[in-house]
Amino acid sequence: MVDDVPWLLPIHCLAHRLELALKDAFKGTYFCMVIDELLMRMHYFYKNSAKRFRELKTLGQHSNINVLKPPKSTGTRWIDHRRQALLAMIRNHPIIVMQMEDMASGLRSDVKGDDVARCKGYLKNLKPTKFILYCNMYLDIVCKLAILSKSLQGDEKSVPMVLLYIETALDEIKELTVTDGPNLTKCRSEGDGDVEFDGVAFENDRRVIIDAIVHAINLRFDNFVNSDLIKAMSFIDPSNWPDDSETLKDYGNDDIDRLVDHFRVPLETNNCDTSVIQSEWRRLKKDIRRHHSELKCHKLWQTVIVNKAEQYSNILHIARIVLTIPISTAHVERVFSYVKRILGDWRHRLNVKTMEDLVRISLEGVPLRDFDPLPVVKQWQASGCRKRRPYIAAYGPTRKATTTAVESGESSGDSDDSASDGE
Asked: Which residues have a Cβ under 8 Å from the Cβ of 102 and sit 6 or more positions away?
C-alpha cells in the first residue's frame, strides 16, 4: 500500500509494541520459565478451589497479612497483568509456603495424593531465596514499564511527548542495572539474604535481562523514534518552543518544509496553498506566543482551529495531520470492552442504532458522578401519546393526590370527633 500511496505513514500501536518487546526480552529466561509459570499455576490453584483460598485467608489473618487473591498473569494487558500477579505473589509468599508445606506433609486426610505431589513440586521453586529476590526485581522492572504503557494508551498524548516518555523510561530501566528498585531494596532489608544471588550471579542476571529489555524496546520502536518525519512533528507541542523570540523565528521552519514535501499530494487535493504555509507558520508562532502561551498542546490547537481557521487555513492542514497521528489503538479497544458490557446475556436484542448511542454515551458522555438524571426522567414522563402513570409525578405524588389525602384525613378526623361528642 505504501508503494501505491507513498505519503502514507504506517504506525503500529505503540502500546502493543511495548508488550511485544517485553515478551521478546523475557522469553526463555528464569522470569518467564519459572516465575511466570508459577504465577499462572497459583492463579488456577486457588481459583479452582474455594477451600484452599479460604485456608490461605485464614492463615493471612493469623499472620497479619492482607491476602490478595492471585490474579491471572496472562491476558491482553501483559504488563499490568504481570504487575498485579507479582504484587499478590510477593505479599502472599510466606503464607503460601506455609500452606503448601502443610498440604505436602502427607498428614492431612482431606488432601489427595496428586495435590500432595503438586505442592511438593511448587515448593521446590517457591522456597529458595532466589525466587522471592527475582520476583522483587521483576516487579521493579514491570512497574517502571507500566508507567510507560499507561502513557502510551492516553488519548491526548502528542508525538513529541510520547518520544519523551520512551526516552525517560529507557533511562530509568538502565538505572536498575546498578541500583536496586524500591521493592528489591525492601526485600533485601527484610530478609537475611543469600550470598550466591546477592553477588556475582544475581548482578550478572540483572544486567543481562535489563540489556535485553533495552535492546528489544529499541528494536521495536526504532522506525518510530528515529524517523525524521516523526521528529519533524515536534513543532506541534508549544512547550518545546524556545523562549528567545529571535530563536523562535527560525524554529520549526525546516520541519514544516519536510512535512509539506511528504504530504504534498493530500494537501493539494484538499485545496491547500502550500506556497503560503511558511508565512502563516511565522505569524502563527507570534500569535500563540502573545495570546495563547498559557494553553497546553491539545487545548491550544483546539482553540486555534475553532477560532482562527480562516487566518491560518493552510498551516492548520499540517496541524490536523499531526494531531490525528494514531499513537495507540487503546481507545478503539475500549469500545470492545463497552460493547461486551452493554451486550450482556439479557440484552441481545438491542438494535444497531441503540447500541451505537449507548457506546457513544459510554465513551464521550459525562462521568456518572456528574450526570443529573432528573431532566431525562421529566422528558420521558412528558413524552408519548398517553400520560405515563397519570396519578404519579416523576418524583413524588401529584399535588391533587396530596390534597385529596389531606382532605380525607380531615374528614376522618371530623367523624371521629363527632362520634366522641355523641358518646
From this structure: 108
If one counts every other C-beta atom within 10 angstroms of the C-beta of residue 285, the result is 20
Q: What residues does 392 pair with on adjacent strands? A: 397
Of 210, 226, 234, 213, nearest to 18 by C-alpha is 213
Residue 406 host element (H or E): helix 399-422
pLDDT of residue 390: 52
What the block records as the C-alpha cell of 269 is: 487535493
**Among residues 104, 174, 189, which one has the least CA distance to residue 144?**
174
DSSP 23-80: HHHHTTSHIIIIIIHHHHHHHHHHHT-HHHHHHHHHHHHHTT----PPPPS-SS-HHH
| DSSP secondary structure code for residue 234 in this structure | G
User: Contact at 8 Å (CB) between 210 and 174?
Assistant: yes
**What number of CA atoms fall less than 13 Å from residue 262's CA on the CB side?**
20
The grid coordinates of residue 134 equal 527475582
pLDDT the model gives residue 196: 45
Residues in the chain: 423
Q: What distance in Å separates the CA atoms of residue 74 and residue 77, rounded to the nearest whole number?
A: 8
Please give the pLDDT value at position 98: 94
Maximum separation of any 2 CA atoms in the chain, in Å: 107
Q: How far apart are the first and last CA of the chain?
A: 102
Question: Quick check: helix, strand or coil at residue 393?
Answer: strand
- Reported as half-sphere exposure (CB side, CA atoms, 13 A), residue 255 has a value of 22
Look at residue 396 and give its three-state secondary structure. strand
Say if pTM beats, i.e. exceeds, 0.85: no
Enumerate the H helices of 226-263 as residue ranges.
228-231, 245-250, 253-262
All three cell numbers of 168 = 525517560
Residues contacting residue 47 through CB under 8 Å, at least 6 positions apart: 70
| Spatial distance between the Cα atoms of 24 and 216, rounded to a whole number of angstroms | 7
Which stretches of the chain score pLDDT less than 50? 193-196, 401-403, 405-406, 415-423
Give the H/E segment covering residue 338: helix 330-342
What whole-number distance in Å separates Cα of residue 166 and Cα of residue 168?
6
pLDDT at 367: 82
Please give the single-letter amino acid code of residue 311: Q
pLDDT of residue 240: 84
- Name residues whose C-beta falls within 8 Å of residue 34's C-beta, 6 or more positions apart in sequence: 125, 131
Give the pLDDT confidence score for residue 191 in this predicted structure. Answer: 66
Report pLDDT for 5.
80
Helix-helix angle 37-47:78-104, to 10 degrees: 70
Q: Decide: 284 and 315 in contact? Cβ < 8 Å.
A: yes
